[in-house]
Amino acid sequence: MSYNSRSGHDYGGNIRRAKRIHSRRSLMAKHIDERLKAPLAKSFEQWQAQPNRYDLPNVDTPKHKAT
Fold first, then answer.
1. Are 44 and 57 in contact (CB under 8 A)?
2. Which of 44, 49, 67 is nearest to 59 (CA)?
3. Contact at 8 Å (CB) between 57 and 39?
4. Segments making up each domain of the chain, as ranges
5. CA-to-CA distance for 56 and 43, rounded, in angstroms?
6. Please, is 61 exposed, middle or buried when counting C-beta atoms within 10 Å of its C-beta (0-12, 13-18, 19+)?
7. Of 1-5, 14-18, 25-29, 53-57, the least confident
8. Is 8 exposed, middle or buried (0-12, 13-18, 19+ CB in 10 A)?
9. Half-sphere exposure in the Cβ direction for 15 (13 Å, CA)
10. What is the reported pLDDT for 34?
11. Could you read off the pLDDT of 31-62 as tens digits, one per residue?
12. DSSP 3-state assignment of 5?
């Protein structure tokens, strides 16, 4: 099951593009963004406009530590 169907959000196949954009952000911005939980963006365009305020699954969602 994909994140699109689980979350009810449609990212239009832009996850790969979002990962590329996220990788170009500063190390500090990526580090902070990946540690904080933010609401899921309703679209790729919403995330792209404000990547520091929204998360996209498998792009900048917090990483869970294995225990």
1. no
2. 44
3. no
4. 3-49
5. 9
6. middle
7. 1-5
8. exposed
9. 13
10. 86
11. 988 888 899 999 999 999 999 999 998 899 88
12. helix
Paired with 40 in beta bridges are 55
Taken in order 30, 51, 15, 65, the sign of the CA dihedral is positive
- As a dihedral over the C-alpha atoms of residue 13, residue 16, residue 21, residue 24, rounded to 10 degrees, the angle is 180
How many residues does the structure list for the chain? 67
- φ/ψ of 14, rounded to 5, equals -95, 10
Cα(67)–Cα(45) distance, integer angstroms = 35
- Both structure tokens of 10: 């449609």
